[in-house]
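INTERNAL AUDIT FORM
Audit reference: QA-55
Scope: verify that the stored structure record matches its stored sequence.
Auditor: D.O.
Record contents follow.
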Amino acid sequence: MIVISSKDNKIFKYVKSLQDKKARNQFFIVEGIKNIEEAAKAGASFEMLVFSEDQYKLLLKSEVISSLKTGQNVVFKPELFSKLADTVTPQGVLAVMDQNVVRPLTKIEPDDVIVVLENLQDPGNMGTVIRTCVAAGVKKLVTIGDCVDLYSPKTVRATMGGLFHIQHRHFESSQPAISFLKENYISTYALAPKGEKSIYDIRRWRGIALFIGNESYGLLPETVINCDEKVNIPMPGNFESLNAAVAASLVIYETVRSKIYSRI
């Protein structure tokens, strides 16, 4: 076993470069056993597994790691591995994999629920929304404008593997996104504080797209105007707003409630 100890090593430089969005043309970093396991379930192609020397032998005994097919296993000194990891206390393994593990959103069915995020900036919020989508059985995600990079280490980690179970499509602005949805007979709902209706007034939770906006200013005015319906989340406590991920989770889980009660 060769252990890499120099930051001048070309493999170290390559993996380190993937922390930067500009270098992520095709491959990205996935850190932690849970994320790697979920990627494997989704049929990911692993270019390499990267280990910390102090945990390498133990990790190889893990069922998740030992079952993976990878092009290359690389071991670094702990002090070098820590520079590649995005966590304070890393688990000692990360993977480099192809972005094609996240399936493109190309087809929409009439009863689909689609979550649409416009200019969402925080990796934690993006990860929470994706985790919630997957947990609720909502597997189709659209991003618009200047959203946080889905493949950044912080976003990937925050999804807890949910990233590998969605279909995704990005649009530079809301108009082509709305057109794409309407062409597929999907009704569009903008989540806005001054929406004319409450989310609890929605009677059909199928064939809809739920638009959620930026953490600070919400959806852009033109996006709200162009959506079919404007809805709000009631706040009896007279508070101004909710965290974007919390708001998204409340709306997403209304689709679950609707399915449950439609069977009763």
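Auditor finding: record pair retrieved intact. The domain at 103-262 is CATH 3.40.1280.10 (Alpha/beta knot).
Action required: none
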